[in-house]
Amino acid sequence: MIEGFLHPALAAGAALAAVPLVIHLLNRQRYRPTPWAAMRFVLAAHKRTRRRVQLENLLLLLLRMGAVALLALAVARPFVSGGGALGVLTERRREVVLVLDGSASTGLQVGAESTFAALRTRALQLAEELDGSAGDRLHVLLMGATTRLVSWPTPEKAALVLPTLTSPTDERADLAAALVEVLDIVREGGGEEESSGAEVRVLSDLQADLFLDEEGGTRQGVLDALDAFEALGVTVILEDATGGVLRPDNTSVSGISLPPGPLRAGEPTEVLVQLRHLAGSPRVAARVTLEIDGNRLPSQRVDLDPEGRAEARFPHTFTEAGPHSLVATVDGDGLAADDSRASVLVVPDPIRVLVVNGSPAERLLDDEAGFLVLALRAPEADGLPSDFEVEEVTASALAAGEVELKGRDVIWLAGVPPLPEGVCLDLEARVAAGAGLVVSCGDGMSDLEGVGARLFRADGSGLLPAEPIARTRSPRRESYFRVLDFDGTDPVLAFFDSERHRPLLTEVPIQEFVRARPLADARVLATLDDDARSPLLVTRPFLDGQVWLWTTSIGRSWTPLPQLAPVMIPLVVEWVRAAARREPGQRDGQPGLAPRLEVEAFPRGLTLVRPDGTRRAVAGDPEPTSRGGFLLPAPEPADLTRAGLYRVELEGAPAEPFAVVLPPEESELRRSSPADLEGLHAALRVVAPQSNEESADPVTGGPQGELWRVVAWACLAFLVGESLWGARLGGRGRRMHA
Fold first, then answer.
1. CA distance 320 to 264
2. Is 429 in a helix, a strand, or coil?
3. How many CA atoms lie within 13 A of 407 on its CB side?
């Protein structure tokens, strides 16, 4: 018997079969018998043929009703079990959705071919089993970071497209997203009924991260998708391509980095190439090479322990600031995708510091900013390149509008008197755009009320993180204040956060400071040992920038600290570095996702150059930043599927390079066992490739055969019969009238 319909709602259309009966009954009620003497001879003849006419009309009515009912049933697509009494009348059209694992790990070479090649061959075999002329349909999807529909709807088309997939992507596969795509296809093909006849197969190397999240639990997205398949009565067949090897050997370049600390153009450093060896046996003298900006450095040999890590160190001097392209390679093994790694390292430009001197003087001991400038330029005295480009100006020059603030990374106001309102607004704009501002007190800041009126607002909209209240001196000439406590976790004071260096800061005598009241959201980084535990260093973010208030002087007038080089130099240098927030960076992204690149001038004519040399136009509009630059529009994810070096070319400006790196999970090659996956979900079944059992009898819980074509032919037969019978009755009626 019929077990159900693919479109059960349409089966209700069979009720329209009652329409011919209703019309017949209505027509009978339209005529009222009227006695007429001359009709007695006609009625006598009619009584002799009445039963035959009623049977003929009833047959005509049934043919019409049957045609309407069968048409509705054919559209609803009834199905039955292949073993039922009507099984011989069904057609065995197959609806197959095939998911091909295209993650980087399937590029593992096993014998003469890769795992991906074996998966592609298996997909071709499945396509050859289907017959498009008989109505079979095949959807092929490639599973990566995003799921791509490769071929549809005929198996013949898939047989033409599959050989063009010569290699996997460099992406990490997202099984949950792929299953959601498959669900959409199954529902579109089978309607919204509670069962479906689709066959779903996933060809994969069973990488563990397909099923497990970072905590080792099953991915919720995978479980949700399998629940939906179970509701549709569909079993997802997962073909195991591991060949029983759950952890193949593999050596990979896992990273490229620099030693901790500042990086300066022109100063010798080292480039560190990290290696990872996932194998049960050691690897001796693996050859590691490094190219920097296309120039190859002498190779090195590294010994690798089983399941171990190692590092190759390449001495190098970056002669120029800016981005530099690096490519590290280790001798090849079965998985070529992770034997090489690209990275783009950005050597920062010197930090541009503007020092505003509130009390300039000819004698260094009397100059408010003299020791500050000396500390920032200290490396130059030793013949080393400096981190800083320092420009010193007077407070009067700044007040007169003669100083350009744009482009300054750090602005230091050293004992500066109240500034004009327009200059304060310019300072606010520059700090809001990302610059660091340091305000240190001193003799030039005699008008504290005026300074507070210009730079402090109680609602937090001003620059200062604390309200200056009063100048405080040591009560006796021979006494002084000291640092009571400080936050050693902050980058500004981290140098002193050790037993050895802590006394350098805590024993500095301070004869004078400005008592200040911090805002509620400000951070006090250092306090003094006076009775009120007054703040010495206070900081607070100001939009994209940061502001610090140093409540004593940075000159010699209020404290001898500037003359204490072991304290002054590390304090000022680390402070300015933290204020600039200019650390070496890397422009590395993952497949499908590029890092955002920022340029100073408005970019035009953007072209993406991929690792293989192909070029793509970059669409979209640049986004202005608060720092006065522009963020380049992101390239299309489909153009970023390969790991390697990329660059964005611009009209009239240097190209901007970046790198796409292989996800680290793809180098793990840690696979799930079929036994573990069998109990994962009732809708998931793991089989070996080319399983005869599975090929002969696909596992589905839905319909095994449809009757719609048979029902449609029956409907046509009823319509033909109705036409012929109606014509016969019509002809007889004309002869009788004649």
1. 9
2. helix
3. 10
CA–CA gap between residue 264 and residue 508 (Å, rounded): 31
Q: Is 345 helix (H, G, I), strand (E, B) or coil?
A: strand
Which H or E run contains 312? strand 308-317
Contact 430, 408 (CB under 8 A): yes
Give the range of the structural domain holding residue 40, as residue numbers without chain letter. Answer: 4-88+708-737
State residue 446's pLDDT score: 85
Quickly count: other Cβ atoms within 10 Å of residue 285's Cβ.
10
In whole angstroms, give the CA distance from residue 158 to residue 152.
Answer: 7
The per-residue pLDDT for range 639-677, each reduced to its tens digit, is: 998 999 999 999 999 999 999 999 998 998 989 988 888
Q: Give which of 646, 667, 669 is closest to 592, Cα–Cα.
A: 646
Pick from 222, 141, 145: which is nearest to 186 by CA? 141
Token representation of residue 466: 């604390």
Instruction: Give long-range contacts, CB 8 A cutoff, 24+ apart: 527-535.
Output: 527/483, 527/484, 527/485, 527/486, 528/481, 528/482, 528/483, 528/484, 529/481, 529/482, 529/483, 529/484, 530/472, 530/481, 533/484, 534/472, 535/466
Residue 380 has what pLDDT?
A: 56
**Dihedral angle, C-alpha 109, 114, 116, 121, nearest 10 °:** -160
| Same domain (yes/no): 179, 41 | no
Contacts within 8 Å (CB) and 24+ apart, 297-306: 302/275, 304/251, 304/275, 304/277, 305/277, 306/277, 306/279, 306/280, 306/281, 306/282
In 572-612, DSSP assigns E strands to: 585-586, 588-589, 598-599, 607-609
User: Average pLDDT in the 410-439 region?
Assistant: 93
Does residue 599 sit within a domain? yes
Alpha-carbon distance of 452 to 514, in angstroms, equals: 12
* Sign of the alpha-carbon torsion through 432, 433, 436, 441: negative
What percent of the chain clears pLDDT 90, i.e. is strictly above it? Answer: 58
- What confidence tier does 600 reach under pLDDT thresholds 50, 70, 90? confident
Report d(CA 417, CA 399) in Å as an integer: 10
Number of folded domains that form the chain: 5
Q: Where are the beta strands (DSSP E) in 174-267?
A: 198-204, 236-240, 250-257
Which of 29 and 632 is assigned the larger pLDDT? Answer: 632
The amino acid sitting at 260 is P
Mean pLDDT of 480-490: 94
| pLDDT the model gives residue 697 | 44
What is the Cβ-side half-sphere exposure of residue 710, based on CA atoms within 13 angstroms?
14
Q: Which of 519, 545, 580 is the last residue of a domain?
A: 580
Same domain, residue pair 548 and 594: no
One domain for residues 22 and 128? no
Pick from 618, 667, 613, 662: which is nearest to 638 by CA?
618
Judge contact between 528 and 603, C-beta under 8 A.
no
Strands 137-143, 95-101: pairing is parallel
Domain check: are 729 and 608 in the same one?
no
Dihedral angle computed from the Cα positions of residues 279, 282, 286 and 292, in that order, rounded to the nearest 10 degrees? 60
Say if CB 107 and CB 167 are below 8 A apart.
Answer: yes
Residues recorded for the chain? 738
The contacts of residue 416 (CB under 8 Å, 6+ apart) are 356, 358, 395, 398, 439, 444, 445
Q: How far apart are the first and last CA of the chain?
A: 50
Q: Is the peptide bond before 348 cis (omega within 30 degrees of 0)?
A: no
**How high is the mean pLDDT of the chain?**
86
E-strand stretches of 461-581: 466-473, 483-486, 512-518, 523-528, 535-542, 545-553
pLDDT tens digits, 343-363: 999 988 889 999 999 999 999
Task: Please check whether residues 491 and 610 belong to one and the same domain.
Answer: no
Residue 209 C-beta-side C-alpha neighbours within 13 Å: 18
Spatial CB neighbours of 99, under 8 Å, sequence gap ≥ 6? 141, 143, 147, 178, 179, 182, 200, 201, 202, 203, 204
Within a domain: residue 663? no
